[in-house]
Recover the amino acids of this structure.
């Protein structure tokens, strides 16, 4: 069968990614790293969890990303936002069968999960039963109801937000649910200078949010996902990923170490991040930049204070090892 995917060109790919980032930054300022990490998970065909306080721009970024992509019907990609609350039911996400009086048959009415970009807002305010409704769709890109399985869109990307777990009325996400998120990041507040410029230019920024350009097609996003798979990663960097994963299982200060799936996810994200940075190969800087975002939420430490210390320690050992090897892509 003939392969219709255009030949990979790093310069062309980089231009498309820059165009997407510039378009997003018309509506949201001062969060370049977070934007790159979100796009990393998108191109790695994963999903992302953002833990932060309200009002830091998470919703705006999600909407802007969806509006930047032209869907199959020549309109913006299908964006859905679900506000998670304690009384939400799984059928509110998945959909349900309703009875058609004319045909005298039950027909399936699709829920908001059938979209391209999903914003699962304050996901940890819903019960674990509702949170689990996302497991199959995030892991297998499909939804099963009874004996029927419904495929989701080829591009299905979940951006979930959660309040800090110390806040009242929240349910900690189960380990199995956390493992479905390729990354967990903190959005954070912008620096003071950027915040001042936002206050001075908020009217222009709001206008930009209402008139976001569609800069890439859905097919181009799918192509970028395919390109990311073929980014070169040196066998010694793969070995470093393995060493870090195994080290988390053999440390007395860690209750639950990282799984094999965690290592595969890290490799996928390393490739996508290298592509975003304009390279067709992964280097040590990529490992240093994103490994903690991919691994830390999958590991259960004996105390919260140890998470940063140990993750830095595992990474430092491998960066030193790679430095001695002086590998070249």
């Amino acid at each position: 069968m003939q392969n219709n995917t255009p030949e990979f060109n790093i310069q062309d790919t980089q231009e498309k990614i820059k165009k997407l980032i510039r378009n997003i930054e018309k509506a949201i300022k001062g969060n370049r790293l977070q934007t790159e990490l979100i796009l990393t998970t998108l191109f790695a065909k994963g999903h992302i969890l953002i833990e932060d306080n309200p009002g830091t721009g998470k919703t705006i970024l999600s909407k802007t990303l969806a509006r930047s992509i032209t869907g199959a019907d020549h309109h913006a990609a299908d964006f859905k936002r679900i506000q998670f609350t304690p009384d939400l039911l799984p059928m509110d996400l998945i959909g349900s069968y309703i009875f058609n009086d004319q045909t005298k048959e039950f027909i399936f009415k699709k829920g908001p999960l059938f979209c391209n970009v999903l914003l699962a807002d304050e996901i940890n305010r819903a019960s674990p039963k509702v949170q689990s409704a996302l497991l199959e769709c995030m892991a297998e890109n499909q939804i099963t109801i009874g004996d029927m399985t419904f495929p989701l869109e080829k591009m299905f990307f979940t951006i979930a937000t959660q309040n800090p777990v110390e806040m009242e009325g929240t349910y900690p996400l189960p380990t199995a649910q956390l493992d479905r998120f390729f990354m967990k990041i903190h959005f954070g507040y912008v620096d003071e200078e950027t915040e001042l410029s936002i206050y001075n230019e908020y009217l222009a920024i709001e206008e930009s949010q209402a008139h976001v350009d569609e800069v890439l097609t859905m097919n181009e996003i799918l192509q970028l996902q395919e390109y990311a798979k073929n980014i070169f990663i040196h066998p010694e960097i793969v070995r470093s990923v393995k060493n870090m994963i195994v080290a988390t299982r053999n440390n007395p200060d860690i209750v639950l170490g990282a799984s094999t799936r965690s290592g595969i996810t890290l490799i996928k994200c390393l490739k996508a991040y290298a592509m975003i940075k304009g390279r067709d190969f992964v280097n040590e800087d990529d490992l240093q930049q994103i490994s903690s975002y991919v691994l830390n939420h999958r590991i259960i430490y004996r105390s919260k204070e140890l998470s940063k210390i140990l993750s830095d320690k595992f990474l430092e050992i491998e960066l030193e090892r790679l430095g001695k090897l002086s590998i070249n892509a």
